[in-house]
Structure formats: C-alpha cells, structure tokens
Amino acid sequence: MKIILFLALIVSSYGYAQSGHDHASESSPKDNQHSDMHGHGSGHHGMGNKDGMMMHGGHHQLDSATLKHFFEPLPASIIDEKKNAALIALGKKLYLDPRLSINDTISCNSCHQLNNFGVDSQPTSPGHDGTRGGRNSPTTFNAALHIAQFWDGRAKDVEEQALGPILNPIEMGMPSKEAVVNKLKRIDEYKVLFADAFKDEKDPIQYKNIGKAIGAFERTLLTPSRFDDYLRGDEKALNDTEKRGLTKFVHMGCANCHNGVAIGGNSFKKIGLVESYETKDLGRYEVTSLEIDKKVFKVPSLRNITQTGPYFHDGSVATLEQAIEEMAEHQLGREVGPGFINDVKAFLGALTSKSR
Ligand code: HEC
Ligand code: HEC
C-alpha cells in the first residue's frame, strides 16, 4: 500500500511541476529512491487508498478526500476532564513543582514551558546542575497523541515517560523512586491531593501514581488550530498562501511521514532517508539494537512547529526555513527554493494553537 502511495505522490509531484503553474521551477527531482522506506510501526490508517489520491495538477486546493486521507482534526478531548479533575489538578501541580528535582531547582516546566508552547527554545536543555543532554526538548503539547514518547520512542505513553526525567541524573536528578515518594510524603498538600486523586488506594503517594497524574494532565494539552477548522470544512480558516503551502506539503511528499491527527508523531523514520544526514545519535537503534533502526527517529508532530524551534533531535537547526529545506533534501532528495519554503512555512503557521 505504501508503495502505491509513493508512486502516486511521485506522479503527482511531477505532474504538479509540469503543470505550468507559477512554481514549476521551485523543485527539481534529484533522484527516485523514495520507495525504500521502512515504515515499520506506522500507526496511520487508510494510507494508500487510491480514491484519496485524486490530484489536481497545479490547482492550489486539495479535495476533501485527499485531505481526509492524510489528516485528521484534533478530537475535542482525549480524557474525561470532569471525571479526572482531581487527578489532572495533581498532575499539573507536579508538572510545575521544582521539588521533584534533587535541589528544588527544576520542574518539567523548566524544559517544557506551558507558557511557551511546551518547549524551552534551546537546542538542548540544562538539567538540575546545568549539564545538558544531547537531545532537544520536544514539546509536551499534543505529545499524548503520539505512538510512543521520546525521539526514539523508548517510553510507551506519557504516563510512563513522566517517570524518566525525575530520576535522570542530568535532568531532575532524584536518586531513587523511594526518595521521591518520601519527599512528597513530607509535603502536607500532596497528602491531600494524592488522596483526592486516588480515592480507592490506601497508600496513594506511590511513584507510579506520579506518572499517572502527570500523564493525565498532559492529556489535556491539546492545541486546536485553524487547520482543524479547515479540516472540519471551514474553507476560510486558511488563507490562499496557507492553502498553497498545504498543497505543496502534500504533493512534495512531506505528508507521507507528517500525517494523521498530530501531523506526525505516528511513525518512526530514518533521518537521511534519501540523502544521508550527519549525526552521531543512532536514535531508535539504541532501543531496538536493530541495524535498520540506525538514525531512525519518531517523526515529530508539526503542530505549533513555528513556535518550537530550534529543530531536529539535537536542536542543531535554528530556523524553520532551514528545517524545511533540509527535510526536502534529506528525506525526499529534492531541492526547494524560497517559493516552496515560504508557502509551506505559512501552512505550518496554521498549525499553531488558537488559544495559547
Ligand atoms: C532538563 C530538561 C527536561 C526536564 C526537566 C524534563 N524534560 Fe521532558 N524531555 C526533555 C528532553 C531533552 C526530551 C527528549 C529526550 C529524548 O528523546 O531522548 C524530553 C522528552 C519528553 C517527552 C516526550 C515528547 C515527545 O514528543 O516524544 C515528554 C512527554 C516529556 N519530556 C515530559 C516531561 C515531564 C512530564 C517532565 C517532568 C516529570 C519532564 N519532561 C522533565 C527535557 C526535559
Ligand atoms: C521519510 C519521512 C519524512 C519526510 C518525507 C519528511 N519528514 Fe520531516 N521529519 C522526519 C523525521 C524523522 C524528523 C526528525 C528528524 C530528526 O530530528 O533527526 C523530521 C523533522 C521535521 C521537522 C523538524 C521538527 C522538529 O520538531 O524539530 C520539520 C519542520 C519537518 N520535518 C518538516 C518536513 C517537511 C516540510 C517535509 C517535506 C519537505 C518533511 N518534513 C518530510 C521525517 C520526514
């Protein structure tokens, strides 16, 4: 099915480039190795349905079947916020609390700032003692939608993920689960909050419950955008440049990997699929030890992407323009110019939260 989709995209992007429209010269195919993807783990559904692949030559607007094919609007909610109100409130408090770190200096919010689109805007982040890790802090916004957590997918969900940084020696640096639990048990407020959130449990302050609470809070961090309105049928939600950018994004093949409800986050792919990419980070290989997983990373969600730079797993790409250009080159073997980059960047701007 994937191959069919690829062929359709290749055909469509050639047709597109030759359609005599105003951007025919912006992209030039360099090679054709697009079909050697190893898209294991893709959680996406419905790809490769030929009905959805009706392409419109150089027209600027994709038909709704194609849109539905690649994208899905954000659900209103993925957790019952009323029923879980106490759990979510506890999770938010823990997320913001520097006391979860060894020297009371950093919280989840230090690296994933709620008032800054869930990021710290740095290439890599300083931990409790100032030491930086090798990877960029991804946003916590919409992260609960991903197939797995971290750049390499080593945690299965946000509940499991949240337990990692607290004990990570270069992040929050707590020495053990017991040390975290004992520390929280000495704080009266938490006795009340945990008892409220875990009503049936005799001894609610437990390490795994910290993850449950923070995860529940993170499940509320969904950020509806104008693109969601557009997907639901509001034609005016995007302007002409954004619509053109969307068409280019799909026709070029970006949506082959960045698709679904999070416009990414639902598969693992190699960085440098077509043109090799220089990085020391072996990505998913460190989790699976499979040769085929070298330099494979979770495809990032592009929601709020204009706000969450610097980019890539190591934060080495400073601007969105450069990220788009590098993606076209390394993932698709295509050279793109300012026309493509500006239109696609405009489209990506329509993925920014309307409310935050
Ligand atoms: C010192 C900075 C720092 C702190 C503190 C921190 N994180 Fe992170 N976070 C990161 C980095 C860096 C990554 C990516 C690491 C990787 O992929 O190997 C990450 C990854 C994540 C992810 C995965 C997102 C995705 O798209 O895969 C989530 C969710 C997350 N952190 C939530 C939290 C929570 C909850 C806390 C508090 C318990 C926390 N973080 C504390 C830096 C931090
Ligand atoms: C073959 C799959 C694939 C294709 C095709 C692809 N990407 Fe990506 N994209 C990825 C992966 C994997 C990453 C993470 C790379 C890394 O950090 O090492 C990524 C990262 C990005 C980022 C940076 C995200 C962040 O949070 O740092 C942007 C922006 C982006 N892609 C846009 C695009 C655009 C625009 C296109 C089309 C020109 C495109 N991508 C095509 C897989 C793909």
Describe it.
Helices cover 35% and strands 3% of the residues. The chain is built from 14 helices and 4 strands. The protein has a two-stranded antiparallel sheet. Helix 3 (85-95) runs antiparallel to helix 8, helix 11 (240-252) crosses helix 14 (338-349) and helix 13 packs across helix 14 (338-349). The radius of gyration is 21 Å and the shape is globular. Mean pLDDT is 88; it is low at 11-57. Residues 95, 106, 108, 110-112, 125, 127, 133, 135, 137-138, 140, 143, 146, 149-152, 158, 161-162, 165-166, 171-172, 214 line the site of one heme C.
**Percent of residues in helical segments?**
25-40%
Terminal Cα span: 38 Å
Number of helices: 14
Kindly give the count of domains. Answer: 2
Average of pLDDT: 88
**Chain oligomer state:** single chain
CATH fold group of the largest domain: Cytochrome Bc1 Complex, Chain D, domain 2
Could you state the order of secondary-structure elements as H and E? HEHHHHHHHHHHEHEHEH
- Which structural category do the helix and sheet elements fall into? mainly alpha
Counting DSSP E segments of at least 2 residues, the number of strands comes to 4
Any guess at the CATH architecture of the largest domain?
Answer: Orthogonal Bundle
